[in-house]
Design a protein that fits this description.
mainly alpha; Transposase; Homeodomain-like_sf; WH-like_DNA-bd_sf
């Protein structure tokens, strides 16, 4: 693996500036690259590669979050069905039980 001429902090700053440029109104990803290069002095290919790697990390995190949400949704739906069934059983049972009155002697 080749050694990078840029330290980790500089690369992180370049990626951060790149995404800020995109948010602040750069017309495209390609237009954001030269703006970051002008500020930090890192080659555009390095910025692009680092930004893509960061986007992949975010995509993986989002996919994991979606999978967790889907698993929780399935669990909650099963529990909801079980509770509805229990509620129906209790309704039927209460129909056959005598009613107690507080005024009965």
């Amino acid at each position: 693996m080749p050694i990078s001429p840029y330290d980790q902090e500089t690369r992180q700053q370049a990626v951060r500036l790149y995404f800020e440029e995109l948010v602040d109104g750069a017309s495209s990803k390609a237009a954001a690259l030269p703006a970051v290069k002008a500020v930090i002095g890192i080659k555009t290919s390095t910025i692009r590669n680092r930004a893509r790697a960061e986007e992949k990390k975010v995509d993986v995190a989002v996919k994991q979050t979606d999978a967790e949400k889907n698993a929780e949704l399935i669990t909650l739906r099963k529990e909801n069905a079980r509770l509805k069934e229990t509620n129906e059983i209790l309704k039927l049972a209460s129909a056959f039980s005598p009613r107690w009155s507080s005024t009965a002697n």
